[in-house]
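Quick one:
INPUT:
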C-alpha cells in the first residue's frame, strides 16, 4: 500500500517536472528567437545604411559635373552663362548671370558716374545722385519761372514724398560728352517723363526709352515708363496721335495729377 502511494507521488512529481522543463525550454527558445531577430534586424539596418550611403556618395559626386556641363551652354535668351567652378560641394558653384530677353544689362560705376552699354554697343553716362543732390535740384525747379521746370519740380517732390525717388533731371551723355537725352524723374521701377501737354511729346525722345535697338537707348533696367501730362486736353491732330501712341504702347502709363501718380508708384 505504501509502495502504491509512493509510486503515485512519484508519477505526479515526474509530470510536474516535465511541465516545468517544457516551460523553461519554451522561455529559453523564445529568448533565443528574440535575440536572433534583433541581431538580424540590426545587421539589415547596418547593411542598408551602408548601401544607401555608398549610392548617395556616387550621386552627390556627379552633381557638380552635371552643373558644370549645363553651365557651359547659353540661357534661353542667348546670353552666355559665366563659368562654374567644378567643386564637390554644389554650393560652391558660381552664380549664373541673368539678363533681360530684350536688353543685356551692363551698368558699371566710374567714380560717381554710371556707365551703361546698350545693345548698339554705345555707352551712356550719367551722374549717380545722392539725396542732397536731388533735394537741391528739386528746390531749384520749384523756384523756376519756367512752367516746364516748375512742373518737373512738383512731380519730383511728390515722388520724393513716397520715398521712391532715385534721380531728378538726369543728363544722359554719350561717350563724346554730347547729350543723348534726359530723365526727368527716376525710381527703381519707372522712368517718369514730365510734359506740360501732349503738344510737348517728341517721338524721337520716346524711342530712347522704349526701343532697345535705338543707338541712344538708355532705359538701362527696362523700367516702366510713366508720362505725367499737366494738361490732359487734346487740342490738335498731333496731340491726338501722341495720346494714341502712348495708350497703345506696352509698358507705358499716362497720368494727369500727382495723387494718381503716387497711387501708381505705391501699387
Amino acid at each position: 500500500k505504501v509502495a502504491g502511494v509512493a509510486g503515485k507521488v512519484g508519477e505526479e512529481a515526474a509530470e510536474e517536472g516535465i511541465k516545468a522543463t517544457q516551460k523553461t525550454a519554451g522561455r529559453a527558445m523564445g529568448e533565443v528567437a528574440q535575440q536572433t531577430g534583433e541581431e538580424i534586424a540590426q545587421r539589415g539596418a547596418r547593411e542598408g545604411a551602408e548601401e544607401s550611403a555608398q549610392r548617395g556618395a556616387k550621386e552627390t559626386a556627379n552633381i557638380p559635373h552635371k552643373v558644370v556641363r549645363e553651365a557651359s551652354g547659353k540661357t534661353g535668351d542667348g546670353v552666355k552663362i559665366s563659368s562654374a567652378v567644378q567643386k564637390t560641394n554644389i554650393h560652391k558653384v558660381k552664380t549664373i548671370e541673368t539678363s533681360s530677353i530684350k536688353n543685356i544689362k551692363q551698368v558699371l560705376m566710374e567714380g560717381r558716374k554710371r556707365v551703361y552699354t546698350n545693345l548698339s554697343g554705345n555707352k551712356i553716362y550719367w551722374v549717380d545722385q545722392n539725396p542732397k543732390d536731388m533735394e537741391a535740384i528739386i528746390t531749384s525747379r520749384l523756384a523756376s519761372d519756367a512752367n516746364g521746370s516748375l512742373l518737373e519740380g512738383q512731380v519730383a517732390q511728390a515722388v520724393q514724398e513716397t520715398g521712391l525717388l532715385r534721380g531728378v533731371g538726369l543728363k544722359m551723355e554719350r561717350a563724346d560728352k554730347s547729350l543723348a537725352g534726359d530723365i526727368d524723374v527716376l525710381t527703381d521701377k519707372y522712368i517718369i517723363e514730365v510734359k506740360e501737354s501732349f503738344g510737348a511729346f517728341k517721338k524721337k525722345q520716346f524711342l530712347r526709352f522704349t526701343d532697345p535697338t535705338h543707338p541712344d537707348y538708355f532705359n538701362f533696367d527696362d523700367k516702366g515708363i510713366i508720362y505725367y501730362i499737366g494738361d490732359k486736353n487734346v487740342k490738335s491732330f498731333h496731340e491726338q496721335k501722341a495720346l494714341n501712341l502712348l495708350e497703345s504702347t506696352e509698358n507705358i502709363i499716362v497720368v494727369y495729377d500727382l495723387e494718381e501718380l503716387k497711387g501708381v508708384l505705391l501699387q
